[in-house]
Amino acid sequence: MTHLNEDTLIRYAFDLMDGSDRKVAEHHLDGCGLCREALGQLQAKFAVMDVLADETPSEALIQQTLAVPHSGGRSIPLYRRRWFVWPAAAAAVVFACLLTLQNLPDSLPKSSPPTVTHTLPPSDVPLPGPEVGGPAWAQAPEAHVHTMAAQPDDGVRIVHPEDIPDKPPFAPASAIELVVLPRPEAMQLTIYNSADLTLVRDTRKLTLKPGWNWLQFMWDETLIDPTSLSLRPLEHADKVDIQQLVFPARLKDIGRWLIRSEVEGAVPFEITYFASGLSWRAFYMGTMNEDETTMDLKGYVHVANHSGQDFENAQTRLIVGQTRLTEEIPYLARRRYPYGPDILDDKSNRLDLGQWKEEEEMAPGLEPWWFVSNGDMKMDGVMGGMDGGAIFYHEIKAIEKEGLSEYFLYTIEGTENLPNTWAKRLESLDVSDIPVKSLYKYDEDRYGTDTIRFVSFTNDTEHELGTTPIPEGNVKLYRTVNDRQNLSYVGETDVKYIPVNEAVELNLGPAQRVKVEPMLMDRKTDHYTFDNKGNINGWDEIETWSVKLTNAGEIAVEAEVTRNFGVEEWDIAIPQGQPAAYEKLDVHRARFTAALPARSEEILTYTVTKYLNERAAVIAKERQGNSN
Amino acid sequence: MTQLSDRNLITAYCRGETSAFEAIVRRHGGAVLGYLTKMTHNKDHAEDLFQETFQKVHQHAVSFKGEDLRPWLLKIAANSAIGYRRKEHKHAAVSLAAPVGCPDGGHCATLESALPSAEPGPVEALTLEEKRQAVRRALEHLPDQQRAALILNYYHHLTYKQIAESLGCSVGAVRSHLFRALKRMAATLPNPTGDVQ
């Protein structure tokens, strides 16, 4: 009789045989004690595998796993060094707000209604909780689920203060019970560009239980200054008491508020804090008419978000003016612990603020030009879509401006979606037919031997402006060159902050079409004076200059030539009939102005007499006598 | 209170009820973590893959059409584990200080501490731990597909068809993987008498 070998016994024991083979094996086993014994030994050997039971996940692991979908797809380390990094799931949604509620003490009535979870109506729920593809930030369930206590009249229930124990529970070591994960009801950003500072005001409805509540706030991967965190109830302020903000040991980027509540139900809260990484800058495009007498000026603001945080439906306000801070918010946002030693967190590596700022400055041409249509700078749409596609607005959003005590506030109409690493450009100014003056300046003290082109206007009502200051920014100037509205590039410059009623000159750099060339034609001395010993102690120096002014352009221009004589007493003589006029600019300088017709050349001649040493004193005395 | 079915839980979660997700994690977390621990032989890695598995559940919940969630979960876990193993094979060196699988979610030991120690301990605990180590080592030596097939079949009682779906192969291939895995295990598992072959 052939006994069953191990292979056959394994197949038999683990049901890997076909029906006919199995019957044959069964038949053999019925009659063979040796094979039955061998089968028993094999089964006993495999029984040892049962020592490996299912593993029970720890509570911490479960809580962290529950938090992962709401943290934008990143795993949350279990308070120990992890070797594994989650595959990055699109843009960072790193702002989670968990409410951990302590169980009510036994002494409290247990009749409070159960906490229920419900979703918003479909129109208010852009996407279901679980991800279905597309950018992760828009689909995080936190953004779409409201959880609140069921109330008979949708209100809150007031409890008696005596029902609340005096002593608060100890700060939980981990998120114990995830009760509420509400979406922000309102978000406001106020961006102070001068200091890389943004004030974030975030309103959320939190469901409170009567008694002591712990509210956990996490800001991993974001540039939030934790020392600026503030929380306040917008309703029931007399019954909801924010007791303290705790930064648990060894946990980074987590703060827990202890809230004593005499109400039960949904209460709106406002969380405010400073963040860095948001910035805005202004830039302008001016288009001059063909004869360069008027200009259409369009202004834009470019808002960029590198804070590590997505902002959805945020009212965005921009502050024009300087802010004084004792500490830099970007520095505070990167410290390892809120009030701890000055060790910078590695956020500085993850969010290289300097790098993106540099990139922004080096590549200003990387503007989202795609929503500029047909060359007329009409902005038909902005990238408002958070789902990967763009939402196109039919109306251009207005930017409302208002003055504050020391700043000026630009408020962008409506709300904006500002995902992390995205930027957005909005129109801030659109004024037509501003009268401008085009002027060519020659001043060796300031510009060397180049003739510099300027376009000037005043920020006042006469120039169709004057309603608000104009923020600092870059100006690009173009000129209409023909009836088909083709443009030629004129130049660009940076302008400083222009207050109302203040004139501004746009320096467009060395001119090509207008040249100023001074030439010394003659020099002599005269009128020597002598001291008691017969030594020369004064004389006149007489120079004759010829200044050639050339306008090679097709339009008439005005030129301004400034001459510095280097002495305090001087006179100028201009030949009869010369069109150029001059004015004494200051004690050393005179300024000539001349109108230059198109394609013309003018010669400006003048003779300057400089009075030196004792002659200067004599002339000064004479002039004083004359004036008296 | 009647327990909601897996199907109802997933549907609720797709509607946005976050508490449903917690119920899913609590219901199936033990099986998933057990599977991943056996697959990776490392508790830390298993916990990371555990989070990754449920992250995928979160991402793809709407695509689940079945009634029983566990085979689907184990399929996701299997893919994660096999993907991890492939990456791990490229870096085969293991430190003695590296954490190894820990019994029942307890404190993690290291390979170093798992080596036979001169210090005496409770006999039963030592024997049990030796058996665990032997089983883990035996599983460790199996090729990925064979190990996955064996764990899914032996510990999680999945049918051959469900295993085939999990591993993306045919039922015949599953039977083949399983037989070969059992044959290897028979050669490496300790005898009931306590001798390790």
Structural class of chain B: mainly alpha
By CATH, the topology of chain B is: Arc Repressor Mutant, subunit A
Give the N-to-C terminal Cα separation of chain B: 50 Å
Largest contact between chains: A-B, 57 and 58 residues
Radius of gyration of chain A: 39 Å
List low-confidence stretches of chain B. Answer: 90-120
Instruction: Give the total of beta strands of chain A.
Output: 33
Explain what the structure shows.
The complex is a heterodimer of chains A (628) and B (197). Chain A has 628 residues and is mostly beta strands. Among the domains of chain A are: 43 residues, no CATH class; 154 residues, no CATH class; 75 residues, no CATH class; 114 residues, no CATH class. In chain A, the strands form seven sheets. In chain A, strands 4, 6, 7, 9, 12, 15, 18, 19 and 20 form a nine-stranded mixed beta sheet that branches. Chain A has a six-stranded mixed beta sheet with strand order 26-23-22-29-32-31. In chain A, helix 1 crosses helix 3. Chain A is built from nine helices and 33 strands. Helices cover 13% and strands 41% of the residues of chain A. By secondary structure, chain B is mainly alpha-helical. Chain B has a single domain, classed as Arc Repressor Mutant, subunit A, CATH 1.10.10.10. Chain B is 66% helix and 0% strand. Chain B contains nine helices and no strands. Classes of the chains: A mainly beta (628), B mainly alpha (197). The interface between A and B is large, with 57 and 58 residues.
